[in-house]
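re: that complex we talked abt at group meeting.

here r the seqs, copy pasted straight from the sheet so there may be weird spacing, ignore it
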Amino acid sequence: MAVAVLERQWVARPGLLGWLTTTDHKRIGLLYFWTTLVLFGAGGVEALTMRTQLVQPNEHLVGPETYDQLFTLHGITMIFFFIIPMSTGAFGNYLIPLMIGARDMAFPRMNALSFWVFLGSGIFLYASLAAGSAPDAGWFDYVPLASRAFSPGRNIDFYALALILNGLSSTLAAANFIVTILKLRAPGMSLNRMPLFCFAFLAASFGLLFALPALTADCIFLFLDRRVGTHFFDVAHGGSALLWQNLFWIFGHPEVYILIVPAFGIATSIIPAFTQRRVVAFPLVAIAELLVVFIGFGVWAHHMFATGLPTTTLIFFAAASALVIIPSTIQVFAWCLTMVSGAAQFKTPLLFIVGFILFFVIGGLTGIMFVAIPFDQQTTDTYFVIAHFHYIIFGAAVFPIFGGMYYWFPKLTGRMYFELPGQISFWIIFVGTNVLFFPMHIVGLDGMPRRVYTYPANLGWGTYNLVETIGGYITLAGILMLFGNLVVSYFSGERASHDPWHGPTLEWTTASPPPVYNFAVIPAVRSAYPNWDAPRSTKPLTLDVGHQQPVTSVDDAVLGEIAVMPHESPWPILLALGLTVVCALLVVEKYAVAGIALGLCGVVLAAWHWQAVE
Amino acid sequence: MNKPVAWWGMMMLVAAELTLFGALIGTYFYLRFSVSPWPPDGIAKPSLLVPIVLAAVLVASVVPLRLGTRLGVAVALVMQAGYFAFAVHEFADGLRSFTPQSDAYGSIYYVLLGADHAHVAVGLLFDLWLLVRYRSLAARVITIYWIAVVVATLAVTGTILSAAA
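got the structure back, here u go
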């Protein structure tokens, strides 16, 4: 009875228009998923083109100009357009409301806006490639190389505007996650009963919120320097080239932890499900997740050890960087002890988490080596650094994303994936990743610099590079097998129950795939593992009048008011379109028209709020 | 702990915006400590009186806003619009003696002030919106926005005036 009422009230508008105007966090999560997957493909093609170019000395597949654009786009794409939007946008959007027992995000229309702005920034970035002027000064885009004097084209203007737009999207998403996690938890889910997944995303969101403004300021300065003629980075007129680096890494290092912390969150979801036990040292792990991001704000200059900073500064930042070992190790021990002391079942998702822990430890160990300042100065800009951060960013940040795809596949589709091909895909990707990235340590110590489009034959780097390229294609094969498995499973996998893993958190208490309203009855939570608690009859909270959602207190999740959520709005996509047009007009130097377009964005924003819910 | 969702949403916006001002002010001092003299030769030191009086007007405008009535918003709007008109006039006046293209001092000076004025302009639009469609929750969160803009203005004014010392 109540379910029928809910179905009627939450039913989505049919067809394409329903997707364009949707505010359902699950649909927005799926939109994020498909978009980031396409961009992941683009970043992968860029990577394999580079690997093919480097397969042997003096190869001529691409020239130096194209190669510069390839490695720049690869870096920007994988960081800003794949990992961040895949983990926060896709996983976070789909799962966080389900895990906290909510029916949507705190600001559903703003959620739609952050997706459409993200899509706009992605199209804008790749339009630069179509225009033949993709960013080409590396993902960290150092001045003076990126200044107008040395990059007269539009390449760097695309970079600055795409990152401002992308940053806007991430800021909106981060604000939305923070408020959702703090205010929309089901009654009874006090902070100490909140899933560790949510702690991780809370930490990542705070990181984004406070880190992105530095990048935005930096990109605004860069754009003004290049187009208006200001002198922020112009040493001849009192500016500073190091100012770019400082602001970039004040953002950039928190960013690195923002990439990895959601992976921690996925790991701490998968491990208890496949060991059927509670996570060891739950409060310590929660604190460690937050601490990693917090410490991440005080270590940025370790990216600048080779720039001639004073020794005292270097030592401070080296010591601060070493601090990150503590919360990282707490988590590694907690994960391992949970697996050792539980009945670990090494199904595909858990295999990816084991791979993640291995990569995280190996990449972490090379990370510790950089704390030794002379070693860092020796290896700066060599392939050793590439090896280190690909172990972390691909091995440690992306493996849990793959594991998570398998783990939540039954929840999203209502079908099981095929287990044996899943495990084989893990082993192929695992072996491929090591073959791809491990030789980079050696060739890096041997002096091969990063970002060279080719190298001479007499340096003895050829064999290593050949092996790396083979590893790249093995990894590709594994990833194709992974997605092939998921696609075939989607059509012909075995029907999954609503809870195939006997998972601990609330998303496993509702149907697979979840109904639009997520929960017919708002859950009442008594522990951090609500799906494992013995059922207890409480007065059910159905809330079936309009899009209702309970709002609870931040600390103890005591039921406060019942809010009515907005739904289906055409304005977010229009506003995102307007903002993307503004950026496009700025890049082609139509400043007056851009001003008018910005004014129109204001009108759209006004129209959006004209009929706000009462 | 029991604040409404809208209150938290505005706190998030304000946190991000104030962090942006933190980055701008950090840039100001980063450039300042590598350039001597500051302001560079040929550029007059900023005058103290007008910016301090202007900032005081903006601080005072929070009082009528906090009344939480449509009339309070109208009074605040008059004060804030007056502030804005004077501030823009000062900004334009300054451009006649030195510009963002003069040197790094000019660049950060005008970007810092410009960012602050832009936030005031957005706040004025919020006020107008409230006068048309007044709702108490909206008035409450817009007051938070204005308090943040006042804090930013005080910090920006203090930063700019530090060159007078």
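couple things i noticed - Residues 104-132 of chain B form the longest helix (29 residues). The radius of gyration of chain B is 17 Å.
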